[in-house]
Amino acid sequence: MECLRKQWTERASLQNRRRLTKPMVERGAQYPKELGPTWPGGTLMRKLLFVVFLSLPFIAVAEKAQPNAADYTIPVHVSSSKLVQNCTDVTGGSSVCITEQRLVVTIGGKKYELLSEHSTATALLRTGDYKAKIVKDESKAAYEYARSFEFLFSDGKTGTYAVTGEME
Questions:
Q1: b/e map 26-54, b = 16+ CB within 10 Å
Q2: Is the pTM of this model over 0.70?
């Protein structure tokens, strides 16, 4: 019985010590050692927060990795580039228009029409030669396919274009 009373007293004492308020701490009250270094105000917590705040600028400045030029092995010749307005049906008295970039290219001796996968294009792609890689190639049947190419530009940036037409 005495053992149970001692355990109950220790447990009640620990619970009371957990209820320390800020003014109590300022007057010299101590956080219990049983609660360990993760208790608010503990040194481990302060160090962890310091490390997190110290690393935030590096995370914010981190840039996307540069693409590997060796992966872009498909030669592409852009012979036509144009911006086209694509407007949806009028609903509720207004319509929504977006600007799309359409390219006519030659890849492997075949002509294709490509559409930029960016929702709004603001500038024309210059005609000329580029390097590309296939990022999507799905064949649903022997007579149809869906394909997208990623172009590598001279500044290291990339652009993705979906095949929307094929010509002979």
A1: eeeeebeeeeeeeeeeeeeeeeeeeeeee
A2: no
Whose CA is closest to 41, among 26, 52, 55? 26
- Tokens for 145, please give them: 């396919």
Q: Which two tokens stand for residue 48?
A: 């962890």
Return the closest-CA partner of residue 74 out of 134, 115, 116: 134
**So where are the chain's domains?**
2-61, 69-167
Per-residue model confidence as pLDDT tens for the chain (168 residues): 565 555 555 555 555 555 555 665 566 655 555 544 445 555 666 676 667 666 766 665 555 678 888 899 999 999 999 998 888 777 777 777 888 899 999 999 999 999 988 766 788 899 999 999 999 999 889 999 999 999 999 998 899 999 999 998
The structure tokens 């005495």 sit at 2
Enter the tokens of residue 22: 């800020």
Residue of 128, 129, 104 lying closest to 115 (CA atoms): 104
71: which 2 tokens? 């992966």
Q: Is 71 helix (H, G, I), strand (E, B) or coil?
A: helix
